[in-house]
Write a structure and sequence with these properties.
Layout (H helix, E strand, L loop, with lengths): L1 H5 L1 H6 L4 H27 L8 H14 L4 H7 L1
Length: about 80
């Protein structure tokens, strides 16, 4: 995944199946999001359309304050 994200052409030249890596990345991300939704729904006890709104606003604010591309900055912003 890291090779494809850094340089798609070079990963392709080294024999990495780029399309498969992209598909697996989307599948893993979707599965983790679904698992997170199930866990939050079971913890809260109800499911509605605004269940993650407050957490999303807090995470977005932390990312903007700390810097979108900086993980330590986002942690500091949180």
């Amino acid at each position: 995944m890291r090779a494809v994200s850094q340089d798609r052409t070079m990963a392709l030249l080294c024999g990495v199946d780029v399309d498969r890596v992209v598909a697996v990345t989307f599948a893993v991300g979707s599965a983790l999001a679904a698992l997170g939704g199930v866990l939050i729904g079971s913890h809260v006890g109800q499911v509605n359309f605004a269940i993650g709104f407050l957490a999303g606003i807090k995470a977005f604010t932390a990312a903007v304050l700390g810097g979108i591309g900086s993980v330590p900055g986002a942690v500091l912003g949180a």
